[in-house]
TrEMBL record:
<keyword id="KW-0677">Repeat</keyword>
<dbReference type="InterPro" id="IPR011989">
    <property type="entry name" value="ARM-like"/>
</dbReference>
<feature type="compositionally biased region" description="Low complexity">
    <location>
        <begin position="698"/>
        <end position="711"/>
    </location>
</feature>
<dbReference type="Pfam" id="PF11916">
    <property type="entry name" value="Vac14_Fig4_bd"/>
</dbReference>
<dbReference type="InterPro" id="IPR026825">
    <property type="entry name" value="Vac14"/>
</dbReference>
<dbReference type="InterPro" id="IPR016024">
    <property type="entry name" value="ARM-type_fold"/>
</dbReference>
<comment type="similarity">
    <text>Belongs to the VAC14 family.</text>
</comment>
<dbReference type="GO" id="GO:0070772">
    <property type="term" value="C:PAS complex"/>
</dbReference>
<dbReference type="InterPro" id="IPR021841">
    <property type="entry name" value="VAC14_Fig4p-bd"/>
</dbReference>
<feature type="compositionally biased region" description="Polar residues">
    <location>
        <begin position="677"/>
        <end position="690"/>
    </location>
</feature>
<keyword id="KW-0472">Membrane</keyword>
<feature type="region of interest" description="Disordered">
    <location>
        <begin position="674"/>
        <end position="722"/>
    </location>
</feature>
<feature type="domain" description="Vacuolar protein 14 C-terminal Fig4-binding">
    <location>
        <begin position="429"/>
        <end position="608"/>
    </location>
</feature>
<feature type="repeat" description="HEAT">
    <location>
        <begin position="92"/>
        <end position="127"/>
    </location>
</feature>
<dbReference type="GO" id="GO:0012505">
    <property type="term" value="C:endomembrane system"/>
</dbReference>
<dbReference type="Pfam" id="PF12755">
    <property type="entry name" value="Vac14_Fab1_bd"/>
</dbReference>
<dbReference type="GO" id="GO:0006661">
    <property type="term" value="P:phosphatidylinositol biosynthetic process"/>
</dbReference>
Length: 722
């Protein structure tokens, strides 16, 4: 201290702390001259003493003017040292950096000015303090004083120039500092950081691309900034890095893929678009490096396929197709289970397009890696089954395609059909809305006969008789009307002459017994008219209810469709198809005369030629009503229409019709008992309800109102008071 005081005049020290800037400036020039003389004589001890005096007595002084003088004095001393300043930087720079956090904005301003002048002198030697200077500048970029910000920007530009020309800059030491600050929200700091990233990336000797995963998330975070300028700067930096990735032979795709996947789910539209664009490029460029990340990438793509922004949807679809086109091998870290897990989760998405693409992925995996997919079947099977209730027809059809692929295994086929029946049982509206679509599609994919046989087997033992009746009626309507089941209908038409047709008829008959009209329809298809007539004769009063008449109305209308053209043509030969006529007249007798169905069927029967039923010759009947002649022939030994012969014990092509009729009657008896118990339950509930209302509205007796009723006069539970 004494050495410094002996070197610097007291007047200079006094002026260095003066409140007037000009006096401080002149004093600093004198300090510069003094230091320059000491440097030329090589007296570095006195130079150190001068610097120490400026630091302790001025820059750390409680007086603001002293601190200002100390800062300008340190800068002047550095200028005086010129090329020898490097050896004194350890003394000079720390007190200046400390002043960046001074409470007085003018002190902070002079600190920027001082460091600027110091940096101009020492240039590259300045790099050893880079991290501390960067940290200080980062804070000053958001300073509350505009003058300080302006000074900091000037200093920042100079530091960037020094760094770009220096070969001593360590990017490895700088990156942790950058990473810490990337999530700062202050817009000035964000501009400052993006500026540094852009500058460093422009230096050929600095490999910023190699460290991109360390600050990529921060850059993406800036894309949603409220400032358009910051968003633009961040986007520009990201675009430059993406171009470098395309041109680089070695890129760490994995770490960045994790970041992009998260950012693809950002609530900010621009961030999502940028992230999905990057993912698109990564899928094209990444190759084997991305295989372990396929599931995560798919998890990001699928929701974006249903994004509200069209640009995002387009890029997401393109990326999805690119990813699905890559034929990765499970032996090469391709995780089939992880992909299936993502697809299963996305099947629960509220967006139809996402659910559809998830199903396409499951289908693709089944085709390419069937064995691996079946290993994870327990994880996805329930979700696939529930998807059959989806609100979208396209989704349901795709799910059915997948189920059909899985159901090549008999066990899974049985599971599928059982679950379908279960779903229809618990949700009758599903049967009404989607039943025909599901059944028809399964018949196309899995063979109609196989599907109908399995359904019949399940429904034969169905405990819920009401549901069984509804389900059978639905299946019967599909059988009668669907183009997909035309071969099945043709097979049933041969039930009396073909073993396969007979076997199918018997198989369906067991469950069709739940519905009289379904049995009659089945017999019409199989051309077992005599048996159908017997079924009609077996019906009792309870069977002919509103539901029955509604089904009968549907059947009569179906008789006029092309499906039953063969039947109408058979009416041209009334003598040969006597049981068909008896059957149709039987149906007519069950219909109310004022109903539309009655008039339709009556009109059709009036067109039947009234020929004699004698096979030797044709003659007109006097009454014009062949039904009288049907009754005349009722004693003949007739098996089925088209074959009048001797009695064969109710057997036709191996079908025991007597046993079938017994089977039908037993099933209908169960339905009658159920209907009776339900009616009794309803009546009981109704009676209790009415009695309760009467008890509430009954007035007290007019006499002996003051006397309470005796205990013996009170009625017990269930006893009615008269």
């Amino acid at each position: 201290m004494a050495d410094a005081l002996s070197v610097i005049p007291a007047s200079v020290l006094r002026n260095l702390s003066d409140k007037l800037y000009e006096k401080r400036k002149n004093a600093a020039l004198e300090v510069e001259g003094i230091v320059k003389q000491l440097a030329s004589s090589g007296d570095h001890e006195k130079i150190s003493a001068v610097i120490n005096l400026l630091t302790t007595e001025f820059t750390y002084s409680p007086q603001a003017n002293h601190r200002k003088g100390g800062l300008i004095g340190l800068a002047a001393a550095t200028v005086g040292l010129t090329s020898e300043a490097a050896q004194h930087l350890e003394q000079i720079v720390p007190p200046v950096l400390n002043s960046f956090s001074d409470q007085d904005s003018r002190v902070r301003y002079y600190a920027c000015e001082a460091l600027y002048n110091i940096a101009k002198v020492v240039r590259g030697d300045f790099i050893i303090f880079f991290n501390q200077i960067f940290d200080a500048l980062c804070k000053l970029s958001a300073d509350s004083d505009a003058n300080v910000q302006s000074a900091a920007h000037l200093l920042d530009r100079l530091v960037k120039d020094i760094v770009t020309e220096s070969d001593q800059f360590s990017i490895e030491e700088f990156i942790p500092l950058l990473r810490e600050r990337m999530n700062v929200l202050n817009p000035y700091v964000r501009q400052f950081l993006v500026g540094w990233i852009t500058v460093l990336d422009s230096v050929p000797d600095i490999d910023m691309l190699g460290f991109l995963p360390d600050f990529l998330d921060g850059l993406f975070n800036m894309l949603s900034d409220s400032s358009h300028e910051i968003r633009q700067q961040a986007d520009s930096a990201l675009s430059e890095f993406l171009q470098e990735i395309k041109n680089s032979p070695s890129v760490d795709y994995g770490r960045m893929a994790e970041i992009l996947v998260q950012r693809a789910a950002s609530p900010d539209e621009f961030t999502r678009l940028t992230a999905i664009t990057w993912i698109n490029e990564f899928v094209k460029l990444g190759g084997d490096q991305l295989v372990p990340y396929y599931a995560d990438i798919l998890g990001a793509i699928l929701p974006c396929i249903s994004d509200k922004e069209e640009k995002i949807r387009v890029v997401a679809r393109e990326t999805n197709e690119e990813l699905r086109a890559i034929k990765a091998d499970p032996a090469e870290a391709f995780d089939v289970g992880a992909i299936l897990s993502i697809a299963r989760r996305q099947l629960l998405s509220e967006w139809e397009a996402t659910r559809i693409e998830a199903l396409h992925w499951i289908s693709t995996l089944l085709n390419r890696h069937r064995a691996e997919v079946l290993c994870f079947l327990n994880d996805i099977f329930d979700t696939l089954l529930k998807a059959l209730s989806d609100s979208s027809d396209e989704v349901v059809l795709l799910v059915l395609d997948i189920h059909a692929c899985i159901a090549q295994d008999p066990l899974h086929f049985r599971q599928l059909v059982v679950f379908l029946v279960h779903n229809f049982r618990v949700d009758h509206s599903l049967l009404e809305r989607r039943g025909a679509l599901i059944i028809r599609r399964l018949c196309v994919l899995l063979d109609a006969e196989r599907v109908y046989r399995e359904l019949s087997t399940i429904l034969e033992g169905e405990a819920d008789l009401d549901f069984a009746c509804i389900m059978v009626q639905a299946l019967n309507l599909i059988l009668l009307t669907s183009a997909e089941l035309s071969e099945l209908r043709e097979l049933l038409k041969k039930s009396l002459v073909n073993a396969a047709g007979k076997d199918l008829f018997v198989s369906l008959y067991a469950s069709w017994c739940h519905s009289p009209m379904a049995i009659i329809s089945l017999c019409l298809l199989a051309q077992t008219y005599q048996h159908a007539s017997a079924v009609i004769q077996s019906l009792v009063e309870e069977d002919i209810n509103v539901k029955f008449l509604v089904q009968l109305d549907k059947l009569v209308r179906l008789l006029e469709t092309p499906i039953f053209a063969y039947l109408r043509l058979q009416l041209l030969e009334p003598g040969r198809y006597i049981w068909l006529l008896k059957l149709l007249y039987g149906l007519l007798m069950l219909l109310p005369q004022q109903s539309a169905a009655f008039k339709i069927l009556q009109t059709r029967l009036k067109t039947v030629p009234s020929y004699s039923f004698n096979g030797d010759q044709l003659k007109r009947t006097s009454s014009g009503n062949p039904y009288t002649q049907i009754l005349h022939h009722s004693g003949s030994q007739i098996t089925e229409d088209g074959d009048i012969s001797q009695d064969n014990g109710n057997l036709q092509n191996g079908i025991n019709f007597a046993l079938r009729l017994q089977q039908f009657e037993q099933m209908q008896q169960q339905h009658r008992l159920l209907a009776k118990s339900q009616a009794q339950l309803r009546n009981s509930s109704s009676s209790l309800s009415k009695e309760g209302q009467k008890a509430l509205t009954r007035r007290p007796p007019t006499s002996d109102t003051s006397r309470p009723p005796s205990r013996s006069s009170r009625k017990g539970p269930g006893q009615l008071q008269l």
